[in-house]
Structure formats: structure tokens, C-alpha cells
Amino acid sequence: MYDFDTMDKRLLVFGFLFRVANRLQSKMDSQMKDLTAKQWFVILVLGLFEQPPTLKQLAAACDTSHQNTKQLVMKLSEKGFVTIHNDEKDGRAMRITASDKCVQWDKDNEQIAMQFIDDMYSGISMDEIADLSRSLMKIFENLDKINGGS
Q: DSSP labels for 103-120?
């Protein structure tokens, strides 16, 4: 088997990034009511905008394809969590807005979400979290540079 103590730590981190992503999605999907982890992430990112974003802007902020974001937004619309409307200046552009149901869901689940975050980071100091955050941002930037950008 593998000797993890002597293995290149970059390879360990590479593998754990996939494992953490899979486990995070699985745990969230099983514990969240009404939404999948990916749908919740879209709603979270949607809340970062001061004005309703276009689908293109939302996809860029989520760092995923226009098509994937559109599928998630359409599902969220079917569930009543977002509304989709054409941009006033550019009729081709779709703008996405969180619905009252979404805002209420956020309020109803805020404590559950914070408990999940607290449990996920249990035993990890704020300094370690800050280091991890900086490292992940650097990896993200490096991935952007590979082959000349996204």
C-alpha cells in the first residue's frame, strides 16, 4: 500500500481535494431540506450581488459553465427559490433574483447551516483556516494560469 508519510504531500492534497468535495456534497445533499449542495451554492453566490446578476455573471461567480448554471437556476425556479426575468436593456440576458421563498428558507436554515460549518471546522484553529484559505486561493489562481486562463 502507500506510505503516506513519505508520499509527495502535493499528491495527497490533490487527492483530498476531490475527496473533500465529494464528501461535502454528499453530506450536504443528505442533510439539507429542499435543496442540493450545488443549488444552495448558487443561492449563496446570488446573495453576493448587489443587483440581480445575469446568468452569465452568476455562472462566472460560481466558476462553472453557463449551461450548468442555467440547469441549476431552472431547477431553483421550478422550486420557487428564484425568479428569472429578461434584462431591461438587453432582452437576451436573463437576470436572476432570489424569491421570498428563498429568503425565508435562508432564515429558517441559518442555524442549521452555521452548525454544519461549525462541525466541519471543529478542531481547526482560525489561524489554520486562514492558512488553508490563502493556500486554496493560490491554487485557484494557479489553475487559472494553466494553459493561459480559464
A: HHHHHHHHHHHHHHHHHH
CA–CA separation, 79 vs 48, rounded Å?
Answer: 21
pTM: 0.83
**Strand ranges inside the chain, DSSP E:** 82-86, 94-98
CA–CA separation, 114 and 1 (whole Å): 38
> How does residue 149 score in pLDDT terms, banded at 50, 70 and 90?
low
Question: Could you tell me the residue ranges of all domains in the chain?
Answer: 32-148
- The rounded distance, in Å, linking the Cα atoms of 140 and 109 is 29
pLDDT-derived band of residue 1, with 50, 70 and 90 as boundaries? low
Closest among 98, 107, 94 to 45, alpha carbons compared: 98
Specify whether domain 32-148 bears CATH 1.10.10.10: yes
